[in-house]
Specification:
The chain is an alpha/beta fold and 293 residues long. It contains 11 helices and 8 strands. The protein has one domain: Rossmann fold. Helix 3 crosses helix 4 and helix 8 crosses helix 11. The protein binds S-adenosylmethionine. The site of S-adenosylmethionine has 21 residues, from helix 2 and helix 4.
Length: 293
């Protein structure tokens, strides 16, 4: 029976590859529309790490700047920029594909120096004029894109000496989750609707990440890797955290909606993510700031 399911899984995967059925920007948009009401749970834990890449001391309070908050979500970075830099001539362009995430940002941010846009990030970048921005910020979003295309445009739209500030997941994040997803796919091949390639889009390590920017002669001015572990008393608590924070955004579109999939995932969390009487999940990420020279 297991052998038959494995063969079915192999053929189903091949079929989906041939049809090009993989998670795309519309799937992420729909997933983040759902995450919007609970995304603050992620920020509560992780915003302290985003603060480290803002490096607001790089920007003199009295000067005029144009900033881009790329894939701004509920606007955490935008809000920090606006509240710490008081110059009335500052402009922040905050763009995201999810209307619900942007709506959450707009509930709090009414500063007229900010321009919110609901659009696919790459479509936005393609139309932006060259040498416009003093700094570009991108929090936990780069792996949703083809990084080569995005960095090409970041370089193009950034002024000389401008900076790019990033925080993003890297290889080794959410250890065990990939295994759980693969095992669930093998167990329920008929439920698979789309494949997902985000794991192969993550940088391997700092060196690999830095190499993405070397092509354009960016100077790296800050680079750090962090591994944060979050503990839960129940497997359901861990699973809900993964879903509510957007940490596994996209996976909800991989399978036909079903209680059986949820139950199977919870059973696997019990086995794979159980450690020292608790359920644990790690979040490994790289923080980086690069200057255009
Ligand atoms: C983990 S959230 C990060 C939000 C925010 N940058 C932060 O640091 O809190 C990822 C964001 O990327 C956005 N996103 C994903 N794909 C996108 C795309 N193709 N274009 C624009 N935004 C996208 C999602 O809608 C979501 O708001």
């Amino acid at each position: 029976m297991k052998i038959l399911r494995t063969i079915y899984f192999a053929f189903k995967s091949l079929y989906l590859i041939l049809l090009g059925r993989k998670i795309d920007h519309i799937d992420y948009q729909e997933e983040y529309d759902e995450v919007a009401p609970t995304y603050h749970i992620w920020l509560n834990k992780m915003q302290k790490y985003t603060d480290e890449i803002l490096k607001l001391d790089l920007f003199k309070k009295e000067e005029k700047f144009t900033f881009l908050d790329f894939a701004c979500g509920t606007g955490y970075i935008t809000e920090q920029l606006l509240s710490s830099l008081t110059n009335p001539n500052i402009s922040v362009f905050s763009i995201d594909i999810s209307e619900k995430m942007i709506n959450k940002a707009q509930e709090r941010i009414t500063d007229s120096r900010c321009n919110f846009l609901i659009q696919d990030g790459l479509d936005f970048l393609k139309k932006e004029e060259s040498n416009k921005y003093d700094a570009i910020f991108c929090g936990y979003a780069l792996p949703y894109f083809d990084h080569k295309k995005v960095i090409y445009h970041f370089n193009r739209i950034l002024k000389e000496n401008g900076t790019i500030h990033l925080i993003l997941n890297c290889k080794g994040t959410l250890q065990g989750v990939h295994k759980i997803v693969m095992e669930t796919m093998k167990e329920f091949p008929s439920y698979i609707e789309k494949l997902m390639d985000i794991v192969i889009k993550l940088p391997k390590n700092e060196k690999n990440f830095e190499s993405w920017f070397r092509k354009y002669n960016f100077e790296s001015i800050f680079l750090k890797t962090v591994n944060e572990v979050v503990f839960f008393s129940t497997p359901e608590g861990l699973y809900n955290w993964l879903k509510d924070t957007g940490a596994i955004a996209g996976t909800g579109k991989m399978f036909r909606d079903s209680k059986e999939i949820d139950n199977a995932v919870i059973e696997k969390i019990k086995k794979i993510l159980y450690k020292d009487n608790k359920f644990a999940i790690n979040h490994k990420f790289i923080q980086g700031i690069f200057r255009k020279s």
